[in-house]
Amino acid sequence: MLDGVTPFPAEFAARYRAARYWDDRPLREVFADVFARYADRIALIDGAERVTYRQLDERSTRMALNLLDLGVRPLDRIVVQLPNTAMFCYLYFGLQKIGAIPVLALPSHRYREVGQFAQIADAVGCAVPARHRDFDYVDMVSRVAAERPRVRLCLVQGGLAGRSAERDGMPRCVSLEKLLGRVPDTPESVLGDIVIDPEDPAVFLLSGGTTGIPKLIPRSHNDYGFNSRLAVSVCGVRDGDVLLLVLPIEHNLPLGCPGLQGFLLQGATVVLSESAGPEKVFDLIQRHRVTHIHVVPALLIRWISAPSAGGYDLTPVRVVQSGGQRLQPDTRLRAERLFPSCIVQENFGMAEGLLLFVRLDDDPDVRRETCGRPICPDDEIRLVDDDGNEVPPGQVGELCARGPYTLRGYFRAPEHNARAFTPDGFYRSGDLMWRHPSGNYVVAGRKKDLINRGGEKISAEEVENLILAHPDVVNVACVPVPDEVLGERMCACVLLRPGASLELAALTEFLIGFEIAKHKLPERLVVLYSLPLSPVGKVSKKDLVRMVTAS
User: Fold this and answer.
1) Does CATH place domain 222-446 in 3.40.50.12780?
2) What is the pTM of this model?
3) Could you tell me which residues are beta bridge partners of residue 374?
4) pLDDT, tens digit, for every residue of 15-73?
5) Domain extents for the chain?
6) Consecutive H or E run containing 467
């Protein structure tokens, strides 16, 4: 097993195998069967391109062999930061075929985050678009590689015209399009000689953790394949269904819950879109008869508010799967009017594993009030108080989880793991919940110090540490403030040195200098003379939220 991965204890692994949750097959074998079974069906639609399952298999094989030609080897890590295109799929399944591991970053991440991911994963390369929304990713990767010599490969989507490898400082800067069209030197038979341990990571996902240092979540071939297989079983997927993916595909939800993986397992079609704009989405639904969509509430609010909705046939949509944050009842009702044939299916999921889904046949009141229940009989849940004791039924407690697809430890993070897991292996999620009489669960808040901006979890501590570097700031606390569309926005509450002043625009410009993702920037600034303290002397963020919300 890859060094730094926490294995499942032997007795639990045996239980999960006996229950047939784990089939001890790497994802490449699972999807080889899928590609052969549905060879002539359309697997992907990307703009005007329609890709069959056979073509997806052939192109990902060619990608895999060309990656071997470039020196990529089993268990090598590649930070992948591509938009929602077929190229992501060719690369993702190509990496699976050689047992290399994608580290999935979002297109919005910048130099600071990508450098951290590359360092923690000990990555050998990055896969990026040449440019996306006016940002030069190749230049960013060249800077990352200059500081981390292990990053020796830059795989680029969108062309390298006019670029010099020497100027960029990249020893190997390679076009993904050229890799896809190149006849590889390595024979296909070599793939059969590569042995992949199904308990090794198939993919690294990113944690929405509270600290300033990101955490990598190793999802094994066994657990992540089961994750997608189980998730698709509760989403009402039928033969001939079509999934539209507009959320960034590197997220756990659109990739595997059930997402790309789950719908391909069913022989369905996945439509990929880089745009989530209402007119683009409505047109894709009408043109491709889309039956399922993954959303976050902020995106759904944007669509139901669009004046153009009435000009399209949106009746094919049967399931709108909402995750990332609590969906308000009014938004759900308006969405079900916009998509007149659909059920809005709420779910609560975490990249660390556990998935709770509302079932499509749940009572309407249960669907409106809850975020679902576990999808596996061996998902174990405890709701505990601050002392670790289970709370009585109906009371709020911290969600702790253990099961066949919930991690046992973050990658190479032993000190954090000691705090994040109970001695008997339950993951402490930091989410506060209570159990509904139906058996479903209701989100009641969180213990973790996170701001949930439109489904993106932002570590308050990470941003606070950067703000503290400002020469005029003495102390700071970042807190969430309610927002009708995004759920929460970040407010920075600062204490300044005597005589200093600070405006939001100046603070934002200062933080942009650290090259962080834009969604992490505060959207409100409050200057205070003191910060409220709790009885134990810590900053009371509950009091701060009340103060800034009332002001």
Assistant:
1) yes
2) 0.88
3) 356
4) 999 999 999 999 999 999 999 999 999 999 999 999 999 999 999 999 999 999 999 99
5) 54-196, 222-446, 450-550
6) helix 460-467
The Cα 381–Cα 40 span in angstroms is 42
User: H-helix or E-strand containing 64?
Assistant: helix 53-69
Q: Do 222-446 and 54-196 fall under one CATH topology?
A: yes
Question: Residue-wise over 401-410: b if at least 16 C-beta within 10 A, else e?
Answer: bbbbbbbbbb
Instruction: Name the fold adopted by 54-196.
Output: Rossmann fold (3.40.50)
Chain-centroid distance of CA 469 in Å reads 29
> Which residue(s) pair with 490 in the sheet?
480
Closest CA relative to residue 85, chosen from 188, 217, 176: 176
Report the 10 Å Cβ neighbour count for 134. 5
End-to-end CA distance of the chain: give it in Å, rounded: 54
Helix/strand/coil for 222: helix
Distance of CA 264 to the CA centre of its chain: 18
Q: Which residues pair with 319 in a beta bridge?
A: 292, 343
- Would you give the DSSP letter of residue 268? -
Cα–Cα distance, 226 to 253 (Å, whole number): 14
The tokens 């400082």 sit on which residue? 169
CA distance 261 to 164: 37
Angle 314-318-324 from CA coordinates, rounded to 5°: 100
Residue 133 Ramachandran class (φ > 0 left, ψ -120 to 50 alpha, else beta): left
DSSP per residue over 148-169, as a string?
-TT--EEEEES--TT--HHHHT
Residue 316: name the closest of 347, 282, 362 by CA.
Answer: 282
Fold (CATH) for 450-550: GMP Synthetase; Chain A, domain 3 (3.30.300)
Gap between the Cα atoms of 143 and 328, Å rounded? 43
Burial 49-84 (b: 16+ CB within 10 A, else e): eebbbebbbebbbbbbbbbbebebebebbbbbbbbb
Binned at pLDDT 50, 70 and 90, residue 165 comes out as very low
Q: Which SS3 state, helix, strand or coil, does residue 474 take? A: strand
